[in-house]
Amino acid sequence: MKYTSHGRRWPRRTSRRSFRSVALAAACFLGAAACQQEVTNPSIITPGTLNTPSALPTIRDAALGDFALAYGGSGADGSQGIEGAVMYSGLLADEFINSETFPTRIEVDRRSIQVTNADVTLWFRNLMRARASTEFAAREYRALAPDTTAQSGLSEVLSLSGYTYLFMAENYCSGVPISTIAPDGSLNFGAALTTKNLYDSAAARFTQALNAANALNATVSAASKTLDIQLATVGLGRTIMDSASTRAGFAAAAALVAVVPTNFIYREYHSNNNTREWNGIYTAMVFAKRYAVTDLEGTNPFNAPHFVTAPDPRLPVNHTGNGFDGSTPQWNNGRFTQNTDPIPLATGAEARLIEAEAALATGDTATMLTRLNALRAAPPSYFAPTGGAIPAMAALTTTGLDTAGVQNLLFSEREVWLYSSAHRLGDLRRLAKSPGPYQRAPESVFPHGAYFKGGVYGTDYNFPVPFDETNNPNFAQCINRNP
Fold this sequence. Notes:
This protein is mainly α. It has helices spanning 13-27, 56-72, 85-92, 103-109, 118-144, 153-171, 195-214, 222-243, 250-257, 280-287, 348-361, 365-377, 403-417, 424-432, and strands spanning 96-98, 176-177, 180-181, 187-188, 192-193, 265-268, 291-293, 317-322, 329-333, 343-347.
């Protein structure tokens, strides 16, 4: 039995895979597209054994395993890796650059994604699978647990369910269909949900998770209860921030996350049990050399990341020749140095950044700088080693920055602290959303101009719903592709 640094049991991936063989048919679907089960071994866990409280740890393990694949990816594919939210959202939003030859990934990097893109379709399936698995787990906790106030798992899987909806809202077009399985096993085709619908769905699940965590009784360890509360709180704060139509809405997010300490972290774990459980970022970048750290990608006047030409101690990089394509310089993300490294999902650093952005929204740049410089003065230990404190930023009264410059300063700090955690695309869309809190021209924040592998960047600000979903009679195409 292994335990995480925050006291939670490290779920056994073997249990997850065994569970999937008998329960995935009831929990896994993608509209009318068939869900591909990876393991069929019903001799290990039979369906009947999943109907008792003793099955809850296995059900939770399955949900966490499916979520890990959708979020952090894995190494289980002939093309050396399956992408999750971290890799694909980062490739579209200029955190990563393509250093190999697969046209499906080049489409994402070039911001010109076809609805028939097979790799993007696979990620969509995995994200839907994670949504179904976490929702199934929540239902089973409510149905099987003698007392949910004594079971911390309910809050956890509700939060992870919330994150699946949040990733759909942040990363996909408006109009994502959500289908469900009826008790008799038939498929209920879902209607296309707008981006606002998806944010509302995420907020509802984070709220349920927060309520479930607050209701936990004394039989649950204080550490587990606190972790559940903080995970749900950061997820809900992020959702409120992303979905706000004006900067006035940021205050509620800041007030919510104020209780979360900076040292809080919830990690998504990986292992060497099999390639499916590898860290997908390490696999795609260091092992397979198909992604590289970006450096001034495209023509992008908005705070173009320059992690190579102007390295930041918070994001160590290392050069290992050229990528798989033989020509793109292969700069690797030093935060992940082995295929078992965990990936942060929610952190106290994010809570401080939410507070900083809310302060900026009211024109309180002094408080914004206080929050940002506090992180610099004591870099959280859960990030890569930084070599100690980072020099503080000077007071804005002496920098001569205009409003856009101050915003760039904040978002550059978010870019570095939250690198490789599936935040960047949501940040760029928040900047470009109209109506929205900033309403910047989309091409002023997304990379554009000549693409380094030929042609020019497209105008995709998000991912399309895959073509397979047209089998759903309630879905035809995205409602819109707006930021």
